User: Fold these one by one.
Assistant:
Number 1:
Amino acid sequence: MASKPTLSKSWPDVALRVLIGVIGGYILASLLAAALALMLTGAREGGKWGMLAGYPVYVAAIVASFGIASVRRVALWFAGLSAVLLSAIILCSGALG
Amino acid sequence: MAWLHTWGGLWFCWLLYAIFLTGTLAVMEEPITHWMTPEHHAEEARQAAVVKTAPLADRPRSLAHAVAYLQREQPPGEMWEIWPGSARHGNDLTVYWMEKGAYIARHLDPLSGKVIADPHDDHDAGRATLGGHHFVDFHYTLHAGTIGLWIVGAATLAMLVTLVSGVITHKRIFRDFFTFRASKGQRSWLDGHTAAGVLSLPFQFMIALTGIFFYGNMYMPAATWAEPAMGGARVEASSASLLAIPDLEPFARRGETLMKQDLRAIVIDKPGQPDMRISTYGWNDDEERQERLVGTTAMVSFSADGKVLETRPAGKMAGGSATYAIATLAALHMAEFGGFTVKWLYFIGGLAGTAMMGTGAILFMVKRRGRAANEFGRATPQVYRLIEALNIAAIAGLAVASIAYLWANRLIATDIAHREDWEVGVFFVVWLMAFSHALIRSPGPAWREQWTFFAFLCLALPLVNLLTVGDMLPMEVVRGDWESAGLELVALVCGAASWWALHRLKRRTTASMRAPSVRDVAPVAGGE
Amino acid sequence: MLAWLLSSLWLALLGFAQLGLSMPRHHRDVFGTASPPSAWLSRLAGFAFLGVALAPCARAFPLSVAIVVWFGMLMVAAFLVVASLSWRPRLLRWMRYPTFPPCKMKTRDR
């Protein structure tokens, strides 16, 4: 976010950012919440921490999707973080035995 | 980032303005309800006096009546709850139980144990009204149930995003911290917008973030889905071998000693089962409610043979730190602690937030009034016109509708059916009329006329009260009824502020009358 | 109770006034000269006053509630200082720390 955004104001670009921010951010925050819920199982605390952490992450994700200069990099960041969280969920859910 | 702030802000600012203004009024729910139910003033005073002087209720007998009723009338289910009443909190006896997932209440006569009508059910008497709860309900559901919750949730998220992007866009946040340049057109609107936001920023972040957590699991259910299923299969109540319910008075006395609070309620989980659990809950007195963020009361649980299973001091709750964090955040939002000091501070913070939304919306148009940015191609003038009308209806129109709601309370006949719906109806109809007015009239006159109407409604409110109910401000003050007096004083202050702003504006526009193209440069009213 | 709240508000007002007056622009609006005697000292005093404003709140309420009230007081004080700088800047000349109470005023009083 440090770089001054050289945001192109063309509609496809902005629409893509909105899409990535709103939907990608939601997925990212949901994955984080689910991962926390699976990691901290005692007394359902994990689900609550997940909920508490999810919203700031969602807000940060939307802001970041406009703060990072290139849309491609935004998409890559989101995809990478989602992959990390997803693997954490798979590991914690016991699907691998 | 500026794009995000401008457009994310614009599409949500009208809704957020409405949520903030009604939420600000919701802080004062109790005084507003009090003012809107004048028929109950005498009754409230009488009850307060009675409660203070009433003899202590015969609690052992009340508890025995309640248990007898529940054993006789109700199948032993999951939970019984008994509120025996006490000297300080009235002598009513109420029992509750869960039946097919629903929470059911019966009121009993503490002396005879017979079922009686709810002694506090006086909604139909006098003036049926939602009172201040209308504002509470509107600010988080828009009176639209679950759909409203989702809309308000989206708006709250948009507000958080806009706040963050606003702080990032604002490059001179510290150097311009104290800067407000008045009477300088667009400059002043920008200064006002940033000052309102920056100076109250902690409050705005707090209120939006705590607001979204209330239904956080509904908007984002992933965490609850991922949670491993907890709790075993429910034990079905078998009526074959029921234990006797022990005498509750000893439990109540031990509970009071351990809780260091008066007894409010006794809850019996799984009544008659071997793992029956008897819990006592306390009352927070007024002082305690002021002193703790989280308003839970003290609790002690016993097993049927009198062993202490769990104690919880007042202000704490079962569960871990996340549970407590969520309770604290909810308490921060609802401002039920700290008495009127905190309520007034929240009121001011809410007004600052409302001003931030309003000035932001106006700033968008002020920037474009002189020099169109043509964001909407050929349709730009029409879209600008619509935005201007929405600004007027959202900002001035909602203020008019809110005060009209109070007028409706005094003017609608008291014996009409569904009276409370009529009051809310007036609120919405007036708001809709304000929007039509803003569409028909050109922006300048529309702003001025709506603020004039607002000033009139505010300044004449005490008069309406005098003519309809016969109560007036000096009498309220003499009586010490500061809730009613406060509401009317706030209305007078709002009316005076609006009138003063209009007066200043008129002086300024007549001064600049000689200048060419007045219509383009004439500043638009909106209060300063 | 009210006394504690008012003293908290007063301390917060002093604090924000110091911070405002440490800036050349606002110093000029109030005193006519653009250079505050010591911007650094002024700023330090400002933050100190803002911090100390928590103490009276903590006398009136338990700490958890006091912190909420303190934030509220800071907000109200900030609005009042901004309003004063914008419409009645001279009101703030009583509040500059390094030379407060103002030396000039002192001689005039006598």
Number 2:
Amino acid sequence: MSALPGSTEGTAVTGLDSSPVEPVAADLPPLTEQTRLECRELMARYPQARSALLPMLHLVQSVQGYVSPEGVALCAEELGLTKAEVGAVATFYTMYKRSPTGRHIVSVCTNTLCNVLGGQRIFEAVKADLGVGHDQTTADGSITLEHAECLAACDYAPVVTVDYEFYDQQDVESTRELVAALRRGEKPLPTRGAPLTDFRGVSRQLAGFSQHADAEAARAAVDGPSAGVPTLVGVRLAEERGEAAPPMQAPAPAPTPDVDEPRAATRPTGRTGQAPEKEASDARVAAAGNPAERAGAKTADPDRKGPSRRRTGTRATGTDTPATPAQSGSGEGPAPSTSPSPPTAQREV
Amino acid sequence: MPLTPVLTERYAVERSWTLAAYEATEGYVGLRRALQMTPDELVTMVKDSGLRGRGGAGFPTGMKWSFIPQPKPGETPTGPAAKPKYLVVNADEGEPGTCKDIPLMMADPHSLVEGVAIAAYAIRSHFAVIYVRGEAVHAHRRLVAAVEEAYAAGYLGTDVLGSGYDLEVVVHAGAGAYICGEETALLDSLEGHRGQPRLKPPFPAVAGLYGSPTVVNNVETLASVPFVVRGGAAWFKAFGPEKSPGPKIYSLSGRVVRPGQYEAPMGTTMNELLEMAGGVRPGHQLKFWTPGGSSTPYFTAEHLDVPLDFDSVAAAGSMLGTTALMVFDETDSIVEATLRFTQFYAHESCGKCTPCREGTYWLVQILQRLVDGRGTARDLDLLLDTCDNILGRSFCALGDGATSCIASSLKYFKDDYVALLPADERDRLGRTLKLEPVGAMA
């Protein structure tokens, strides 16, 4: 397979250069008929099929761990494009990898804000531990390392992601431990994100398919923690100070009865902890207009399910990740311990 | 100004990302109300609210919606008005310093979904795409789940809530390219191409996705829409200044005691926000900060009382951008910070326009030798000259943004650059330095 008509055997298909394709790993899983059918499913989701190209590239990457020449060819074939056209797209985006990746991808933010707080030091330390540089994979195939541009988590700086799940407020030691654990085959829980699967799994999600075997695992992924201290700091402070947005006036013409739902009971004032949800849940089950809504309303019951329990003890989540001083909140200034309202402590931290 | 959690209020609600929690907190009430209104009434309401785009540019949202060509009653539509309309959500958050949309999508994805449904209805679109940054996997997963729940509950899909209105929504993951946050590059990317900006005009409102009329809105903008509909234009206008009203998520990061998301009325000052965030870390003083991400010119301690709204920040010589307030203190080197930002722009320049592609490369070389102590007396002027050859000379704002940190750092902290020069170069400086303001030659 070659990049352009007339180019020699072994020329990169995904590259604009003529560097030889890396030897294909012996255990590279093949792209199957299933992959092809899934490509077509993606193409059908858009008014124009080519819009599915980015998802399709995520998909072939999820099977083989990178965008292989074979993956490029499959996308090209399905979309009626040349391999050069697909290669041109694949090489534009940093998340499409051009050589086989490790089980996990570790990204260390070294952009300005994280760097000021130690991002570069973290990257250098991990680089030394792993013996690989940017965009390189360890010999045991466990980890691909990269330094990343801003990961949009500056309020949690310095940040590291594993398979793009957030490990917030890291330092050199915590990241070294994290990476060592990954190499041992462990999967420390992220501070924000789903329990780790692997790079291929998360690529499948980005393609637009579930990466999970069953609904329960999928739900657990969705329910992975998302809000740490910095996310909630403003809303907690407002509560503490008794500050709030100006109240909305009741609408002049009430178009449907639904909008007259008892606002006082349903509004998340933040002053009653999780109670409003429960109250409102009951009110809504009664008021729900159709079976689907009713089903949805029932799931409102905050006492219904386990995962929230897992989250209420964030510290428990944190204990499986490398122990960082920051994760215990010490780097974040005081949590509102002076808060007069005990129920706040029960909510997600 | 007090804290006024509106968009962030649900963040603290148990399992806030679920439909159940959302409905329990007046979720989808705005959509129900919107569907009782005509699309034109909605556009007028959003115009009257004064809502301006939260993605950085601050363009009036209702006006953007009104630019979509619509068929005239009684006439057979021709041209763009005859084409399908599209709504595209720019959820490709990646501007250094910016961290407001990803927490929002993680904590309250339904507010975005509801905003999408209302906006799509207002512009008479039946297909909307949420283009999420690829690295934001948890936000992506929460959005996918929220969209599924919304379909199941009848808020999306065929015959939304029995109104006869149909809307399909696709959550689409990007693949790691900052430039795709630029709306026309985003559209090219969404069409399955390299994400490179288009020349404007035509604007997306006339020829956007697939050459059809398209509205591209930011996450925070659309998440504000259900509140505008529920609270009304007058309620929304009660926050902050007349010309750029509304609640705003300010994201503080860096050398503050309590970094994080603080939602307050537009026009809140940095002094007020610093007070909320516990101030600069003890024993240190603020040296420089960005009002809205790395593309906005730096501010200094002189600017702590500038109201942080679109117009006041512009009047003070910077841009509100994404209200990403990165705070640096006296221990941080402004030249090194500027080098890092510039390396980012060089990496993320899509390569389409020569001034940006080559200019950012050379800016990095010059800054690097300054930081390494190998600078020359000419370099300071050379930096500004290079900036002048980028600013306004490329298709999109990436190149312009790359010059902001350089020009403003030289404006406020020239001595920091000079201090990095070798002694003999420093001596020569007095004879050569011009430091013409960027833009003077444009």
